[in-house]
Amino acid sequence: MARSESLLPVTSQHDPLSESSSNSIPETRRRKPTKVHLVVYSGFLLIALYITLIVTHTRPVSTKGANDEKTVASRARLAGVSEKSNEHIWKMSDDREGE
Amino acid sequence: AFAWNNTMLSWQRTAFHFQPEKNWMNDPDGPLFYKGWYHFFYQYNPNAAVWGDIVWGHAVSKDLIHWLHLPFAMVPDQWYDANGVWTGSATFLDDGSIVMLYTGSTDKFVQVQNLAYPEDPNDPLLLKWTKFSGNPVLEPPPGIGDKDFRDPTTAWKTSDGKWRITIGSKINRTGISLVYDTVDFKTYEKHDILLHQVPNTGMWECVDFYPVSKTKHHGLDTSVNGPDVRHIVKASMDDTRIDHYAIGTYYDSNGTWVPDNPSIDVGISTGLRYDYGKFYASKTFYDQHKGRRILWGWIGESDSEAADVQKGWSSLQAIPRTVVLDTKTKKNLIQWPVKEIESLRLRSKKFHKKIGPGTVVPVDVGPADQIDIEAEFKLKNEDLEVIFGDDSVEDDKDFSCETSGGATLRGALGPFGFSVLADQSLSEQTLVYFYVTKGKDSKLKTFFCTDTSKSTMANDVVKPVYGSFVPVLKGEKLTMRILVDHSIVEGFGQGGRTCITSRVYPTKAIYGATKLFLFNNATDATVTASFKVWQMNSAFIHPFSAVDDLVVPSST
Q: Is B549 noted as a catalytic residue in this protein?
């Protein structure tokens, strides 16, 4: 706690980027107001990108899970012998640890 | 997945346990002794380190330890085994010739039984196998699923001179063993009655059936029967991948078997197991050369398939074990590594140490990744008397190796034993130990356990605590034997009454960094341990070369 409190003010005081941006924004507003639209559109674009990222990030996990299930149901099971893979035991122990 | 590197993975290969040079292996098949050679066949995928494309691998040995790989014995080349040459068993006929019955997975994935025999009976190596032209000899009977009919046993003689086999199956959730009689192994007569069945145990595979002597310590040929004989039924539980056995009485007249104690019947979860660790699809054979029954067991991996693919191989076989009825308790089998394993013992060190409660002692044996330990432990009588004389100490009815917290659970009289495959700081260690409790009626109750939960820093490994109750009779000392061979640890409690095989994959406790410790994590008991540790040689298992291998290590 003590460490993070002492660090916070130092970082904000010595942040050169925050100072330069605060100076530049009003200037650009005055000279090129059309760029505001660009900034807004960029904002929308960023939000869209963010949503896309979330979707694509979750999709591989679920796809992987589905593939794993197929692997676990596996050739051995499909062919008609006992399961040879450990994946389901491993998943069960993972679940237990999670709980 | 854990970031395994080649250094770690290379270390996992064993020095004296049977394994192919690469790829996947599972069940033992048709082990036998013929013209001076032990033959070992096994389920093998020549194409990958995961199950599939199963052929019969083949190796020979003079002593069950120094194996020489031979070409495949059988491959899927017929419609009746197109999807795999699966598990089978060998039978010696009266004239000394061999027949092999095995399960084939047909081109339509139906499980059928097939007959094969050696092409040249004069070849001691049994290199070539002929499949019977009339295969399949058995198909799933009415009422049995196409994928519920596999793994024929070695045949045994009936009193009227026929041969009899049993095959595992299920009806709904009831595990069953079907019975067939034959005179020529080509045509069969199915019994209406089953050898045995147990509800709610699921599919039985790799059924084994054999006699054990009530009085003698030697093995019996599969056809032996009589008043001094008990019969064992073993089945591998498809649902749980556990090998369960039970002791009972076989009735030749109708081909049935009845367990001594139905409450611990075949497949009942509280029933008897060959091994309380990782040990499956096992099979025995009668070694007529040395008059003993030998048990083979498939030891799978506890890591991930991805790791297996990375290391390029998967699975081991346990060191072959002699199996006999415990003539003292008459309620369990005794398994013990074959005597021949002792031929690998190199230099040894003997120790006698007294260790107090909460103590861990390093054992200076040098590198400890290929060792054989034989130990006996003694608890101080005063410590026992304190616990058993104190009514305030409650009976520990609920202790279980698997669920009671492993070796970190401290009781008055345990755990104590060895920490194997440990690094110097004990950040990785596998603990093999006894845990003694005050059992029912205040009688001593002893458990033999293996805790793998701290065996590795890797996260893609199953790390259970294994173990079970082990019978200790009055006047007996507590004894254990541990075989450590890189990624496999085989533990034998009380002379082999309870056995535990585990697979472990340390990341730091490897090569020269592998240490051995003796520990006593009991709260009240002082333990005296007398033990001997041998460094073990490699068995140098390699492909057979006609020039070099005509002279192999002599059998002991």
A: no
Q: Is B241 close to A83, i.e. CB distance below 8 A?
A: yes
Q: Which residues pair with B438 in a beta bridge?
A: B444
pLDDT tens digit string along B494-528? 999 999 999 999 999 999 999 999 999 999 899 99
CA distance A83 to chain B (A): 8
Dist. CA B274–CA B336, nearest whole Å: 11
| Cβ within 8 Å, pair B86-A84 | no
- SS3 of residue B364 by DSSP: coil
Closest Cβ–Cβ partner in A76, A87, A93 for B51? A76
Give the nearest partner residue to B109 out of A79, A84, A85, using CB atoms: A79
- Chain A residue with minimum CA distance to B45: A76
Cα torsion angle, B259, B264, B268, B271, sign: negative
Judged against a pLDDT cut of 90, whether residue A91 lies above it is answered with no
pLDDT digits (tens, 9 = 90+) for B165-180: 999 999 999 999 999 9
Please tell me the distance from the alpha carbon of residue B382 to that of residue B388, in angstroms, as a whole number: 10
Q: pLDDT tens digit string along B228-251? A: 999 999 999 999 999 999 999 999
Task: Provide, rounded to the nearest whole percent, the portion of chain B with pLDDT above 70.
Answer: 96
